[in-house]
Specification:
288 residues; alpha+beta; Helicase, Ruva Protein, domain 3; Tetrahydropterin Synthase, Chain A; three-stranded antiparallel beta sheet; 12 helices; 10 strands
Length: 288
């Protein structure tokens, strides 16, 4: 077996981010070959992933990345097992890299495609393996979405200070001057924060799936059994209107001024800016 110098161990430690003892052991197994030692450390990460495959990943970080022109924006979660690891330098570095992979991915919302995306010849799957070998915890991509504006508008992102929940909302405007208006930008930011707080199920009534609607109607009808059929129908209709107002973003009372709905807040801001604006879609991701 080749003698492993302290300088060689330090070099591998710097390259891999692993502990001294792990690096020394890997170099010993690789008979001093640096590339082979790196491969051993990566395999160690894969072994750790396999052992911890059934673990919950209820901690992590929500990250965002935007193109230079702001027309394409991504939002994603990188998840791990504990808050301790989520705050570690190794995990934070991987989360930062995830943003670059989001922008390079060929798919706007497929986590599997994101895993296999390469940046500088390295797939994000490899980044995860390396991170696992350093932290010893299961790590995986959670939610992921990327929005791209084809015309005038803006994409606003709000990430809560704990970095465990974030929202992305895409707004189309009648022209670029409306999108760049400070009042409209402020409204877009407020709406993103509103979404983070209220957790709407959909943009509007059409966005709530039929199964959920029927389930809610059945629950409401059960609650008023014994009343005349026409009365039941009116009560259920009223309860469904309240359900839509609570769960459809455009119909929700705005958290900062509940005398207005979210759609009214945006319309007022657009009018003040001299044009029109509409929310096209949104995403709200939360770790845990």
């Amino acid at each position: 077996m080749a003698e492993i110098s302290a300088a060689t161990v330090m070099k591998l430690r710097k390259m891999s981010g692993q502990g001294m003892m792990d690096c020394k052991k890997a170099l010993g197994e690789a008979n001093g070959d640096m590339d082979a030692a790196m491969e051993i450390l990566r395999k160690k990460g894969l072994a750790t992933m396999e052992k911890r495959a059934g673990r919950d990943t209820s901690e992590g970080l929500v990250i965002t990345k935007a193109s230079d022109d702001g027309k394409t924006v991504a939002l994603a979660c990188l998840c791990c097992e504990t808050d301790f690891v989520a705050k570690s330098d190794d995990f934070i570095e991987a989360a930062d890299k995830l943003g670059d992979y989001c922008m390079a991915c060929s798919d706007d919302n497929c986590s599997d495609a994101l895993l296999n995306t390469e940046v500088d010849g390295v797939a994000f799957n490899t980044v995860i393996t390396d991170t696992v070998s350093k932290t010893g915890e299961k790590t995986q991509i959670g939610d992921y979405a990327r929005y791209t504006l084809d015309g005038s508008g803006l994409i606003n992102v709000y990430i809560h200070f704990n970095k465990k929940v974030g929202t992305m909302v895409m707004i189309e405007t009648s022209d670029d001057s409306i999108a760049s208006n400070d009042e409209l930008k402020a409204a877009a930011n407020d709406i993103a924060m509103h979404i983070t707080a209220t957790k709407p199920l959909a943009l509007d009534r059409d966005g709530i799936d039929a199964e959920t609607v029927e389930k809610e109607k059945a629950i409401f009808a059960e609650q008023v059994q014994g009343k005349p059929e026409n009365i039941i129908e009116k009560i259920v209709e009223g309860k469904m209107s309240k359900f839509y107002a609570e769960n459809c973003l455009l119909d929700q009372p705005f958290v900062k001024d509940d005398s207005k709905t979210v759609s009214q807040v945006l319309a007022d801001a657009a009018k003040a800016a001299g044009g029109d604006a509409k929310i096209v879609k949104f995403a709200r991701f939360e770790v845990g």
